[in-house]
Amino acid sequence: MPVSPMVDSIFVGKGKHPLYLLTKMANRHGLIAGATGTGKTVSLQTLAQGFSQLGVPVFTVDVKGDLAGISQPGSSSNVKVLERLKELGIDHPKFAGCPVFFWDIFGTEGSPIRATLHSMGPLLLGRMLSLNEVQMGVLNLVFKISEAEQLPLIDLKDMQAVLKYIGDNAHKFTTQYGFISTASIGGIQRALTELQQQGGENLFGEPALNLDSLLQVNSEGQGYVNILAADTLMQSPKMYAMFLFWLLSELYDHLPEIGDPDKPKLVFFFDEAHLLFTDAPKALLDKIELVVRLIRSKGVGVYFVTQNPIDIPNNVLGQLGNRIQHAIRAFTPRDQKAVKAAAETFRSSPDLKVAEVITQLGVGEALVSLLDERGIPTPVEKTLICPPLSQVGAITPELRKAIIQRSLTHSQYEKKVDRESAADILQARTEEASKNPPNHVRGRQQSGPVTQVFKGAWAVINSRIVRDIVKSVLDSFKRR
Description:
By secondary structure, the protein is of the alpha/beta class. The protein has helices at 40-53, 79-87, 117-128, 133-148, 156-168, 170-177, 182-197, 200-203, 237-254, 274-277, 282-294, 314-317, 333-345, 354-358, 397-405, 410-413, 422-435, 439-445, 449-479, and strands at residues 9-14, 18-22, 30-33, 58-62, 100-103, 225-229, 266-271, 300-306, 322-325, 365-369, 381-385. The protein folds into 3 domains: 9-114 and 206-405, 3-Layer(aba) Sandwich (Rossmann fold), CATH 3.40.50; 117-203; 437-475.
């Protein structure tokens, strides 16, 4: 591989001259965009391997199942890769794989990865459930009431139990929290059932992910590449997008401020990024913008991977300093708009008509602009992207299983733990109430036949006394 001009940099490819991503600018975020089949995944793998070799842990998503090859060395028998390396001046490549952790919400293609409902919060959960504005208001109250009554929300059965409890006792909470619609509670319950059917019960629970598990470096100083299997998860797009954003938000909330480090603490690749923004409410968009803007000071670089740059809102797009733009096929008016938008976001180059070139790029070619040492985007260049020195493509199920079994994370997260939480506490309260009913209830229960006779007699006596008093008063008026 060409010698880097600086120790901490990643060779991205070659235009008029070699292009390097400086790791001290890597936390300024980035974008990898382009149509399907133009080479986005290869660009992602090249960057991920580069970061890993420099001791930077990576989190990425394997949407199509073809990113697992990063765990294995590339092969000298891959003619296309060898030809590209030769074009780039790399005659003696050192093929190598990266240390990896495989993760999977469903626990089949990697170690289970979980969150708690409490850490997810009402905004992301409501988005995951596709709730309307009224239902979102009720969900916010559910979280407030559960916290006030010390009812830990861990998994879906906890949420269902708390919703039932609030629905059964809505009058009790009206004064403090306002009217709670039973129709809204029913709507949330139905949405929870649908999420359960999509596999949401696997997502929520304990042990929840410890963020330190994503920040590991092996004994040789290489950063682990954390790969989330998402081919099944992608069938539930909102669950996919909200889980990834929850993870990003957790990193933002819990990592300490470190300013601009010489290299990132973690690089986060957000594939199929358009799913995060599609029809997102303003409150969520505001939070996304805030997290992306401020998480760089925690040493985290975020790289959005998507087909069109117009999938990313301008307020977020403007924060993505390192850009690799693969071909866009301008077949539709929307595609043409994307071409124009992509061209306008690059720092122009006098001898390059960006809008034309974007539509003519071949597979493995891209328009590249990276931040220089001063944090200024370099003029855009048409670039041959360097292929990764790890295997491109999937690995066998047997090899994946072997890697998972010997993983440091597997034993930590393999078995689900069911500690006491909201559902258990409410069940215990119900059982206790049935054993020890309130005094007024107990009094009614102890009212037997003898008691009823005394009550009847007292009523008769009472009525006679009243009649005698009334008669006496009337007689006194007559005598006057």
